[in-house]
Design brief:
Layout (H helix, E strand, L loop, with lengths): L10 H12 L3 H14 L4 E7 L5 E6 L6 H7 L26 H7 L2 E7 L6 E7 L2 E8 L4 E7 L6 H5 L4 H18 L4 E6 L2 E6 L5 H9 L1 H5 L1 E8 L2 E8 L11 E5 L2 E3 L2 H10 L12 E6 L5 E2 L10 E2 L2 H17 L22 H9 L43 H6 L14 E6 L3 E6 L2 E6 H18 L5 E11 L5 H6 L1 H6 L3 E4 L4 E8 L7 H13 L7 H15 L10 H12 L14 E5 H7 L3
Parallel strand pairs: 1-7, 11-13
Antiparallel strand pairs: 1-2, 2-6, 3-4, 3-6, 4-5, 7-8, 9-10, 10-13, 11-12, 14-15, 16-17, 17-18, 18-22, 19-21, 20-21
Helix pairs in contact: 1-4, 2-6, 6-7, 9-10, 11-17, 13-17, 13-18, 16-17
Length: about 600
């Protein structure tokens, strides 16, 4: 015994160590206690805090309550009503299950529990200091549970030193309540900080109503309903239109089987679905729920249960990405895009560069984009009257400028994405913006952004369906290269050929241009190629393959589209608007800039004081 150096930690020390993992800050304690209330079936939960939660955390619920025996054992480590054996860990269906929350909180605070079951005549009261029970008694109270946590970390002063400012800790608690409220819109939540009500959220009929309660009507108005199933994985919730974005990812909320999680893979799936729809560096707003078999997700990988591990993370990523991307494909119709879209078959004859390019074209975009008339800045716009309407053409109500189904299904009808070709064309402003009149106000359409999206989607459709069509030149044209960059450019010839340029080396610093993308025609092909060569010389084409092709297609669409400063004829304007209405993701150019800006009629009338 004298030589023994390994010993068992005292229970109190072990509990304080566990508290360091589970109770990182007051917000962690609030999250754990509110999750217990939800597991107890509460329909109303009130939270009151003082001094950012360090002075007081009080949680009151109307859940099932506890007996005296359960209350006493609840503050012991690994005490839980959620699981019975190891087999239950395979399919956890409750928010709490570890049995460490109350014990950890009790070990670093003065804890008071008052609880009563509906059938009991009296409630039970329990007081504990530093994890040790100081008193138990009967008490009079309504059914439910009230837990007070006072002087959190009073016996672990080192933890107090790591707490942030009062405002920061209050903000973290409010965010925790927000996430739980979004996941449980049928439950009423209330949060008070130092006697002041911060959140008062009555029970809501829908997630959209809860979003309106939490974030206000402006954000609720931009939301689109989402509900898709793929490979046994259901993705549902709300996503913002592509015309709205934020400086940070703070408005992206992800939930797995009703549990709020901070999963980077899920957030990445959502944000990638917005690629080419919002500007780079901006982030969307989304409340996305993922439901799958409990056996296919492990929630027992993080002490605070904020991270999960999927059995097949690739399938989950695909399900979320395609669900969001499909929903954003047609924002004119809230009910559109519910069908599963099959992946386009791959061509065995494709070159390695073309195969890599196809990886950029996501599976859900395999529906053929209708043939769109090319528009060049130096040539007239072509009419689309001879083109047959595509199978997926939007259903347009007679005499209306907005899709009726979208107006009925979205929370704010005025925010429906317009059918541009059904609006009255007023004219062209500053040789760059098309003015349209609708029932709800004035719209200005950026002609370059609009045609850039049309061209970009056409190029992607051709690339996906076998390769970008090439129009041969009657007389090949030589392109002189900067000798210092010639080797770099010639190394990128496979990528340039994949996007529609028929090129051959013609000496150490010369290329022979024999054909160009048919969507642009051969007139002006050489200047367009020179723009692309500048991008290659700057290193764009030597990035990771997916990023390279995405950026090259964006640049190609940009340089080949009608520019601001070009005066359009009436038939050209109508042609562009018709083609834009048949294009997916039409609300933004490939770089994320908006295609149109609206001025509501009410706003215009208020400006004139009507």
């Amino acid at each position: 015994m004298a030589n023994r150096v390994i010993h068992i930690l005292p229970e109190q020390v072990a509990s304080q160590i566990a508290a360091g993992e589970v109770v990182e800050r007051p917000a962690s304690a609030v999250k754990e206690l509110v999750e217990n209330s939800l597991d107890a079936g509460a329909s109303t939960i009130s939270v009151a805090i003082e001094r950012g939660g360090a002075g007081l955390i009080a949680i009151i619920d109307d859940g099932c309550g506890m007996s005296r025996e359960d209350a006493i054992i609840s503050i012991r480590r690994h005490a839980t009503s959620k699981i019975r054996g190891a087999g239950d860990l395979v399919a956890i269906r409750t928010l709490g299950f570890r049995g460490e929350a109350l014990a950890s909180i009790a070990s670093v605070s003065h804890l008071l529990i008052r609880s009563r079951r509906p059938d009991d005549e009296h409630g039970v009261g329990l007081a504990a200091d530093g994890g040790d029970i100081a008193e138990t008694c009967e008490c009079a109270m309504a059914p439910g549970t009230r837990i007070e946590v006072r002087e959190l970390f009073f016996n672990t002063p080192a933890r107090l030193k790591f707490l942030k400012t009062l405002a920061t800790e209050q903000g973290a608690i409010a965010e925790a309540i927000q996430r739980l409220a979004l996941a449980n819109h049928t439950v009423a939540f209330r949060l008070e900080t130092d006697g002041r009500c911060v959140l008062d959220l009555p029970r809501a009929k829908s997630l959209l109503e809860r979003v309106r309660q939490v974030f206000g009507p402006k954000i609720a108005a931009m939301m689109l309903a989402l509900d898709r199933s793929r490979a046994g994985i259901r993705t549902h919730g709300l996503v913002a239109t592509s015309q709205e974005s934020f400086a940070t990812a703070r408005m992206v909320f992800t939930f797995v089987n009703g549990r709020a999680v901070r999963d980077r893979m899920l957030i990445r799936a959502v944000e990638q679905a917005y690629q080419t729809l919002i500007p780079r560096g901006r982030h969307p707003a989304a409340i996305v729920f993922v439901d799958l078999r409990h056996e296919d997700v492990d929630v027992n990988v993080h002490p605070m249960k904020t991270e999960v591990r999927f059995r097949n993370s690739g399938a989950v990523f695909e399900a979320v990405y395609h669900a969001v991307r499909d929903r954003l494909a047609d924002q004119t119709n809230a009910a559109a895009g519910t069908e599963e879209v099959a992946a386009a078959p791959a061509s065995a004859a494709q070159t390695a560069a073309l195969s890599a390019a196809r990886e950029v074209i996501v599976e859900q975009e395999s529906t053929t984009v209708p043939a769109l008339a090319p528009i060049r800045s130096d040539a007239p716009l072509r009419l689309v009257a001879d083109n047959p309407p595509p199978a997926r053409e939007l259903q347009r109500p007679l005499g209306l400028g907005y899709d009726r189904a979208a107006m009925l299904n979205q929370a704010e009808p005025a925010r429906a994405i317009p059918l541009y070709s059904r609006l009255k064309v007023i004219g062209q402003l500053f040789a760059g913006y098309i003015a349209l009149e609708g029932e709800d106000g004035l719209l200005l359409v950026d002609q370059h952004a609009a045609h850039e999206r049309v061209t970009f989607e056409k190029l992607r459709a051709e690339l996906r369906d076998g390769g970008i069509r090439v129009q041969a030149m009657l007389t090949p044209e030589t392109i002189e290269l900067n000798p210092a960059r010639a080797a770099q450019i010639q190394a990128a010839l496979p990528e340039l050929r994949a996007i529609g340029f028929d090129l051959e080396p013609f000496g150490p610093a010369t290329l022979l241009l024999k054909g160009a993308p048919a969507v642009f025609g051969v007139d002006g092909a050489a200047p367009l190629l020179r723009d692309m060569l500048d991008a290659v010389a700057d290193g764009e084409a030597r990035q990771s393959t997916g990023v390279a092709f995405e950026e090259m297609l964006k640049r190609l669409a940009c340089h080949g589209s009608v520019r601001v400063g070009r005066v359009l004829e009436d038939r050209e304007i109508h042609s562009l608007l018709e083609e834009l209405d048949r294009t997916e993701f039409k609300t933004n150019c490939p770089h994320g800039r908006p295609v149109h800006i609206s001025f509501p009629r009410g706003q215009i009338e208020r400006m004139f004081r009507r």
